[in-house]
Amino acid sequence: MNFIESIRVLDGQLCNLGAHIRRSSNTLLHHFGISGELPFGELYASALAAMEEDGAGLYKLRVVYGREVVSVSLLPYQEPVSITLKVVECNNIEYPFKYEDRSGLAALLQHKGDCDDILIVKDGLVTDTSYGNIVYEMDGELCTPASPLLKGTRRELMLQEGLLRERDLPYGELCKCSAFYMINAVLDMKIISHICPL
Q1: Which terminus of the chain faces fewer neighbouring Cβ atoms within 10 Å, N or C?
Q2: How confident is the model at residue 82, as a pLDDT?
Q3: For the segment 34-43, what is each residue's pLDDT rounded down to a tens digit?
């Protein structure tokens, strides 16, 4: 069983590194009984040296690990121009850890149609997209679902900084939201241009 950490690297700086260390350390302890931290700084330096780049610009550092580090990649990252979502419903989906095996999410993605990604509704509540958390604006506040499939690192940071508050979003209340955004470790708050309903 392998897991993934994807880290935003901007001009050589690993962003929100503490959250990635906490999540990966919790994963190692929970699944393997291993106490310790992954050496993200060393892994980044090694990947950058292999690319023979200076590190300027925006990159995505992807680390696959189990009991040991399995693979490391470092690639330039280009944010999407726009994002459209197709609502799909699944009451038995579980993704509490950032597993490398995304077969459950991949099966749901088969229903995205012409949209870029999916918006997953579980037990009547909006949760996440296939690769990011949701932020929505309601009553003048920026909120994020209280019960996401995965508690992402950027979500954690924004909650800690007081930029978001947790609030359940029933599917029937989507129309009450004035704006939607997607966030993940590498993606800044990106506006969702359209949501196709169930």
Answers
A1: C
A2: 86
A3: 999 999 999 9
CATH top-level class for 3-76? alpha beta
Sign of CA dihedral 123, 124, 125, 128: positive
CATH architecture of 83-196: Alpha-Beta Barrel (3.20)
Query: To which residue do tokens 């209340």 refer?
Result: 173
SS3 28: helix
pLDDT at position 166, please? 98
Nearest 10 degrees: Cα torsion 106, 155, 31, 39: 110
* Whether the Cβ atoms of residue 135 and residue 180 lie closer than 8 Å to each other: yes
C-beta neighbour count of 24 within 10 angstroms: 21
pLDDT (average), residues 175-181? 96
